[in-house]
User: Fold this.
Amino acid sequence: DERCGQIVKAFVVSRDEALTAETLDRWARESSTLDSYMRPRQYQFVKEIPRNPSGKILRKLLHELDNDPAGRR
Assistant:
C-alpha cells in the first residue's frame, strides 16, 4: 500500500466451497466491530494455515503461500 506500506490480507480456510472473497468482503464492510483500516483488501483461500507443533502460526510459510500462484497447499 502506498499510504501504509502494507495491506491486510486474509488467509481463509473454508469448509464451504460456495464462500467467496466477495462474501467475506461484504461481511467485513458491514461489520460494526471491524474498522476500515482493519478490513482485508485481499483474500486467499488455503487448505490449512501452517502451524508449528505448539499451534503458533508460521507467518514465514504464509508469505510463501502468498507467492504461490495456485495459492492452495
User: Anything to note?
Assistant: The beta strands are 9-12, 42-45. The longest strand covers residues 9-12. The chain has a mean pLDDT of 86. Residues 43 and 67 are 13 Å apart (CA to CA).
